[in-house]
């Protein structure tokens, strides 16, 4: 949510303010910008875990090893059972996570 605000919604609102947009138009910018920003962030999370690092420029394990609170992790946690949550607890934040550990995280997500 935070990323959606500063990557999409806030720039739209700033542009609107500079152009003299009224309140109703600014509300429209927010209604458009927040879902777009959330979609962007979810795609970024998916590419960060499942994408090709050669194409994305992101190491697959960055968010997992850094135990970053991504939208993907939040949704996974919401729907995961106790066993899967235990698996994630054991793996998230480990700087020494190997390919097998990363594969286990991917399986849960």
From TrEMBL:
Sorted alphabetically, which SUPFAM superfamilies does this protein's record hold?
Answer: Terpenoid synthases
Q: Does the keyword Magnesium apply?
A: yes
Lineage: superkingdom: Bacteria
Q: Which residues cross the membrane?
A: none
Q: Which Pfam families match?
A: polyprenyl_synt
Q: Which Gene3D superfamilies match?
A: Farnesyl Diphosphate Synthase
One GO biological-process annotation of the entry reads: isoprenoid biosynthetic process
- Has the keyword Metal-binding been applied to this entry? yes
Any one GO molecular-function label of the UniProt entry? prenyltransferase activity
Sorted UniProt keywords? Magnesium, Metal-binding
Q: What is the name listed in the Swiss-Prot or TrEMBL entry for this protein?
A: Polyprenyl synthetase family protein
């Amino acid at each position: 949510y935070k990323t959606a605000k500063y990557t999409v919604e806030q720039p739209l609102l700033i542009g609107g303010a500079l152009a003299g947009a009224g309140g109703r138009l600014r509300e429209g910018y927010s209604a458009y910008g927040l879902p777009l920003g959330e979609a962007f962030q979810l795609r970024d999370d998916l590419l960060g875990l499942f994408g090709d690092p050669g194409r994305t420029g992101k190491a697959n394990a960055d968010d997992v090893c850094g135990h970053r609170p991504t939208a993907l992790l939040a949704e996974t946690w919401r729907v995961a059972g106790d066993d899967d949550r235990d698996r994630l607890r054991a793996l998230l934040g480990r700087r020494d996570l190997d390919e097998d550990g990363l594969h286990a995280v991917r399986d849960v997500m």
